[in-house]
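Assemble and predict.
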Amino acid sequence: MNIAMFVHSAVTQGIPLLYGSTGEIITEKSGNLNLGIPGVMYVGAISGVIGAFFYENSLADKSRINSALAILIPLLCCLLGSLIMGLIYSFLTTTLRANQNVTGLALTTFGVGIGNFFGGSLIKLVKADITSVALSGTSYCFKRTLPIATKFGKVGEIFFSYSFLAYAAILIAIVAAIFLRKTRPGLNLRAVGENPATADAAGISVAKNKYLATCVGSMIAGLGGLYYVMDYADGVWSNDAFGDRGWLAIALVIFTLWRPDFSIFGSILFGGLYLVHFYLNEFIPMDLGTQSLIQMAPYVVTILVLIVTSMRKKRENQPPASLGLPYFREDR
Amino acid sequence: MERTEAIALKNITKTFGSIVANKNVSLHVFHHEILSILGENGSGKTTLMNMISGIYHPDEGEIFIDGQPASIQSPRDAYRYKIGMIHQHFKLIDVFSATENIVLGMEEGIYDLKAAEKKIRATCKKYGFEIDPTKKIYQMSVSEKQTVEIVKALYRGADILILDEPTAVLTPQEIRKLFDVMRRMRDDGKAIIIITHKLNEVLEISDRVSVLRKGEYIGTINTAEANAGILTEMMVGKKVSLNIERSEPKDLQKRLTLTNVTVLAPDGRAILRNVNFTANAGEILGIAGISGSGQKELLEAIAGLQHLKSGSILYSNPETGREENLRNKTPMQIRNLGVRLSFVPEDRLGMGLVGSMGIADNMMLRSYRKGGFFLLRRKEPRDLAKRIIEELQIVTPGPQTPVRRLSGGNVQKVLVGREISSSPTVLMAAYPVRGLDINSSYLIYNLLMKQKENGVAVIFVGEDLDVLTELCDRILVISGGVVTGIVDGRDVTKEELGLLMTKAHHREEEAQ
Amino acid sequence: MNLTGEKLKREPLIHISKRGALPFWKSWLIRLGAIAASLLVCAIITYTLTKINPLSVFAALVQGAVGTTRKIWTLLQGVAMLLCVALAVTPAFKMRFWNIGAEGQVLMGGFAAAACMILFGDKLQPTVLLLVVILSSIVAGAIWAVIPAIFKAFWNTNETLFTLMMNYIVMQIIAFFSHVWANPKGSGQINTINERTEAGWLPVIGNYPYLLNILIVAVLTVAVYIYLTHSKHGYEIAVVGESENTAKYIGINVRKVIIRTMLLSGALCGVAGLLLVAGTDHTIKSDTAGGRGFTAIMVSWLAKFNPLVMILTSLLLIFMQQGAGEISSGLGLNKSFSDILSGVIIFFIIGSEFFIQYQIKFRKHKEVEAK
């Protein structure tokens, strides 16, 4: 057992969470509590899978896969699928002012349903001649790492052994953090989430910001699903394998106090907690039962953070003030 | 000094439904001057200013900016015309810093908070503001928040500044500072409008005064030629007879006695300070004051909804003859003591009634605990609802129609009707005729009068001085949380009340 | 500075405003229209994916949902269980307390039942055991619900996120005990508990294994309906949900009401867990609640928190679920197909509320100018 391997696994485990939480943070900053994120991530994943599936199946010779296309097609499909999910949520909650919690939960039901349905029925639907959805060619392209990864030993394994989507996740989180803190659109977005009436009075379009944040947030979250299936799961789709990672991503948003830069470390920490039992097992033998208790940790920690912040009432650490509330100008 | 016209309003009229907020108002404001707009509550000052700052649009009339006709549809448009308004309720985002709030929604140039901070500091230096641009709003005092609002307006290049009741929330020292700043801005060529109802401030700060009364423009005079007497007369007008038949109080009995009642606001300011008075059974005690002087807190303190810092509220129970101290008791405990206290709060749908419920269910609010063990008894409230609908001529499709859907007057009748129906010994009503038409108002006056004749101690918080002087037996005047006088309702003139309402002697106390 | 021309262009064409009361029949017409539209979309989706003739889609749905007596029983059981959880979340929702932790509260109730069955299966009298099972599951559900309620009442801790997290904690607890009590050992699963003795199992009425559950839920539906609309507690819940200020004004102890209501909400979830574990499954897994905690929220919301209408909304969802499930399994497709259709139906119904609450006016330019 070595620590480099553990860090490596924690990071690969954490990346989908990072995508999910970055996307949800941007969404929540606009005042939209999108509980549909788990569904969005499923749709992101399955859209990518469908794209890759059709591309791979269109090839006569799978070994002559074009790596640019193999990456681009699933990527675009994933973004498109997640965008549609974001649009559904935005249309219902912002334009039609539907309740955010109910819409979000319905979106999760819908999205997980789409993921599992197409994942489980794709072969049947296109009458393909294979037994399972295993996109090894595409996955190979997605998993390519930097050549220097192997040259630097453990340092290389900890820092350079990931695929481009992993680095992209970190980059997006950093960009999101800078966007929220240091740019004018970021300021406007935060204003909308804090106090839409004030933002409106200052001439900021509340609806436009909510739509944009939710859709961009969904697309980022969708990438988490894509990373999971193409990289972590080696291109093999199995139903429900993604599990509760979407909810963990939402927990991570609270845990990191709505800060995408904290989320980079938070996601790796959560990723580590997800598998720490495998590694602890080598030092302290423990049964599978105890391991599931350890898996509880991210949720317990999140609740503690939630409780402590609500008791301390430090204003910077609170959820956006209008989170979950609809805005209608004439209600003022 | 050259006097150029900044704003001209010509024949502005604005109505909300059947209520006329402004009628044919014409006004001129010049650069290099401070203009006070003086008027009682409900005289249409804020509505008028909201039309200049783009919140409302006038129904009739024209606005000229720098001599050109202007169309102001939104606050954004107002800024384009270099108009900045500082509202009574600040439009700031708590978790943002001052700088972030100031630049919010601006689109010009690159986004550089450091540069903005520098510019803000320069503005502050120029006019003598003291704020830290990096400080978060939630860490600021009210006065600092106000300063941020003013700087925000200046930062956007405002040449015309409108301040809505800026001194209401400030301490004397802060007011002095604000006035210094306002003078400096005036000397810099800005046109400044200050909405207020405090005579001493008008006399101190402004160059000219325009007076509004009940939505109408009364006139403008140079401050140098004005004094408190002239202004009060312009503000309150000649006495209008309302023909309320006021009966002589008889069989007066002490019912409620407040001694040294002090209540603090959440931010630690004293919102009521050493209030003393007695309310008697068989009379109507009026409470007069500028809105926000502590009337709401006073009634809530009696009703058990405010925590008393000190003092006592004694209730003399007519049945047992015992005296009960209501201090810091919950509404439940007060009721359990056998105190029959009715309270018509100012916020009818947000506090007195449940908007989504029908009249019948709203009747139950006070009485639902009675009778039965677990289940509600709906028959009595339903009968009561029917009776009230009939007696008070409430217009409603039926007792089950949500009260939110009724008109303001009918909502008020529901509320007053319920509060009276429990045959109270004390009846408190806050602005019970606000937003009501003449007929409904008279109906309410008569109801209050009848209660008084039945030996109820009625406490009536009002804003129309004509009504107060014709309806009430005694009038308590409150200003800034302090009782500035208790006068006989039959003898007092509106001018005397106006002076008491704007009396600011407590400011000196606070300054010590 | 002439802005007039530009202004007119910016005036929005569509003006949205709150509307007054719609007549009862009109609002239901809008809802029925939305359901019809959603069914149409469902038919189109089904047709594109399966190439079943759109008309026969509906026949297949009906056939799949209520085609045989067995299917009808399964349908009723499904409705009963979903309805039970929906009844549980409703009091909290009426109070505007966003309990999305029903999933966890149901699981906790079920877990407590299973734990008692396992631990005391051969130690207690059958009747005593049954009582212990019933009581412990109700108490466990209530406890799991009251924890976030206490934090909400005293520190205003965000209950949506709190209750959501609680769901996953209980799933891990069950995963842990699935290993501890694994049967057979090492399988990581709990098999049917007390299969031989049936100790702690709820009795079966006649030959109908689901009948007891259905009857209990039917009674609960009426009880919750009465509780919400005719009891003093229900009245207090409505007042607190509408305006905390009004509640304080009339002397309601808001904290007490929040905690009491969540105790009830959790207890009812506990009942659902009891029925699932001691009534039908006789085992516990981390997916015993089967997502009902989330679906129930939608059931309750779509019914505007009216328990009697909730019978219809849960029937609609279960009907679609079972019908679509049969269609997909008949064609060898994944049964998650039904989730897609449920999602579509819910989207349409929650979207339709907008047209009940608001009206859209198309503004004419002339009017703007005249103003």
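The first strand of chain B starts at residue 5 and ends at 16.
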